[in-house]
Amino acid sequence: MKEKQQNNGAGYETCPPGIAQGITIGKKAVSNRLFLAPMAGLGHVAFRELVAEFGGYGLLFTGMCSAKALPHENPATSPVFKWRKQELATLVCQIFGPDPQSMAAAAQRIEAEGFFGVDLNFGCSVAAICKRGCGAEILKTPDLAVEILARVRASVSIPVFVKFRTGWINDPRPAIDLAKRFEDNGADALVFHPRVAPDRRSRPPRWEQISLIKEAVTIPVFGNGNVFDANDLSTVVKQTGCDGIAIGRMAVSRPWIFAQWTKGFTPTIGTYHHTAIRMTELLAKHHGERFAVKLYKKFIPYFSASFRFGHSICKELLKADTMDELRDNINGVFERDPEIIARPNLNLFL
């Protein structure tokens, strides 16, 4: 694909030096401290392959996988529990469930398949998940959260991560206590999102709470929440002393962000065009055309957020029912040389 030259937006700095350094989690080495955060409906195998083609990350995380279903899940047909063999050495599978037994059984399947590690989801605040007694709902019963972790830890030897939020009230003390208990019961690393569950993303994360979690434990602590540019990355690392950062929505908007921040990769307008087309190819390869179109439409708002008049671009790209129509729309957008903005339009970050 022919590269078109254009101002690629201000602020394409690299990350703080410490983030690009390796770290040991459990007994396994990780090349750097910048991770792809788990994202339901977005962190699928096709998107992870796209990220992997740019490189620059330490670990990748799957989307949420149901612990109840996972022991019998077929990777050939599952939209979530699906992977490429070459990514397993740096891939962590996230699971959710309301009881220790099913979570432990799921973790055993994950270890048997060869994943780097398993991540326990105690952070999702989506109503459909919480109503099932899963995700952030478990934080209302701290003893259950600890029991789930202890059972999983006793069942596997791979690294165990815990992803959790501040809780359900705007008081970090319960989260600090839980962090200590997680460490005492065998967690190898914590990924902390400093927001209360009822807020979801309606208010800014309280980054200062990450430092409270970091100070409470000796295991690695990774921050998460509203890291959208290199300045945000430097600020949160400097302010909190966290061991690394898990990047979610920003990575969907710019899948090369890990290479940009850890390897000095500089995107051009051609990078955006190539990425949009490549995503159609990877989705079709892994999921079949019909489901691929549905998944691509989840990707479009985040991708469109990088452009001035992103809402109009988003609407234009969404007007498609087939992959061929999607590609035609993508090519039409880039024929007009859309202007890239340095910081994405967060109104398009769903």
TrEMBL record:
Cofactors: FMN
Binding site for FMN: P38, M39, A40, Q94, K163, H193, G248, R249
Gene3D superfamilies, alphabetized: Aldolase class I (3.20.20.70)
Name the record gives this protein: tRNA-dihydrouridine synthase
Organism (species): Desulforapulum autotrophicum (strain ATCC 43914 / DSM 3382 / VKM B-1955 / HRM2)
EC category name: oxidoreductase
PANTHER family per record: TRNA-DIHYDROURIDINE(47) SYNTHASE [NAD(P)(+)]-LIKE
Family the entry assigns: Belongs to the dus family.
Location of the DUS-like FMN-binding domain: 36-286
Catalytic machinery residues: C124 (proton donor)
Keywords: Flavoprotein, FMN, NADP, Nucleotide-binding, Oxidoreductase, tRNA processing
Annotated signal peptide: none
